């Protein structure tokens, strides 16, 4: 990998190179549409990941997974990045985060136990939970996109009144608003959960992607949240969605639950997935630091571009992730903004409705791309307004 790739991963690949990719981001739409929707980054992989997978392929090491390499690598990363001590004994690998979440829900609660989510939030949360037959309660975020103590307490109180027990499923950091929950906010959540007898499950897949001035707080380091269960993966931070692997992480209070899950588990993580994700956690630190530096530049650039090309839209400056939340309702478009921008501007953003009814009128923009592509994408979106 060249020095430019190390220090500027988001400036390395041209549009022509990216269009040769066969992944969903670049193949769902035709070449006339710029895709800034699904959570894939326009970066070359970290060299240690390439080396680890190539070495496995050359050895023919493509069998079934074995051992705790993933948990050990994650524990090393968590200690170095967040001063969080994880015992690999309290981890086990699953195929992906959503599978892990549903398996944890089924393990720690009965079929009559409802689940609270915090919309607008990652759309598959609702889809997967309702597919399990669980009742779903909404604790809507504040207008600033942050955890809302009032809506959380209302949902938790309803659960306590029903005497079923409950679960709250959070996105930490939050997708799509890009909010990095503070320790104080998570302590508030933990205190309410303790008061009302609610168990916490935390999706921490975007955890390493913190912008300067913000820190990630693992839920398991929060006072009173020791019985929470985390489901995470290197897939979003290291661009490994195609190499399926995720990790369930608990603490001593959840050890019995994790042991039961491990004993009953059938579909494990991909062996190559574990190899790649473990290499990312072991040796990908310099690469992800370079990615974060580029993302920090892009998040500010995107703010300027929204102000220039979509004047009146409200841009939530992301504190984490590479996903930006934009309220397009002030633009008074005649329909769903994402659909209009796609059809008339030839640029694909994620529709806000994907993240729940509360997301209507919004778009989510993946800004993990080159400044050139990002600039052209917002110019195209702005052309829709100019044409009115």
Structure write-up:
Residues 48-379 form the Aminotransferase class I/classII large domain. Its EC number is 4.4.1.13. The protein has 388 residues and is α/β, with parallel strands linked by helices. The chain folds into two domains: 3-45 and 286-386, Aspartate Aminotransferase, domain 1 (Alpha-Beta Complex), CATH 3.90.1150.10; 64-283, Type I PLP-dependent aspartate aminotransferase-like (Major domain) (Aspartate Aminotransferase, domain 2), CATH 3.40.640. It is 41% helix and 13% strand. The strands form three sheets. Strands 2-8-7-6-5-3-4 form a seven-stranded mixed beta sheet, with helices on both faces. A four-stranded antiparallel beta sheet has the order 9-10-13-12, covered by helices on one side. Helix 9 links the parallel strand 5 (166-171) and strand 6. Mean pLDDT is 96; it is low at 1-5.
Fold blueprint:
Blueprint: H1 3-7, H2 15-18, H3 24-27, E1 34-35, H4 47-59, H5 69-82, E2 91-94, H6 97-108, E3 115-117, H7 124-131, E4 136-138, H8 149-162, E5 166-171, H9 183-196, E6 198-203, E7 229-232, E8 246-249, H10 255-264, H11 271-283, H12 285-309, E9 314-316, E10 323-327, H13 337-345, E11 347-348, E12 350-351, E13 362-366, H14 371-386
Helix pairs in contact: 4-11, 5-11, 6-10, 8-9, 12-14, 13-14
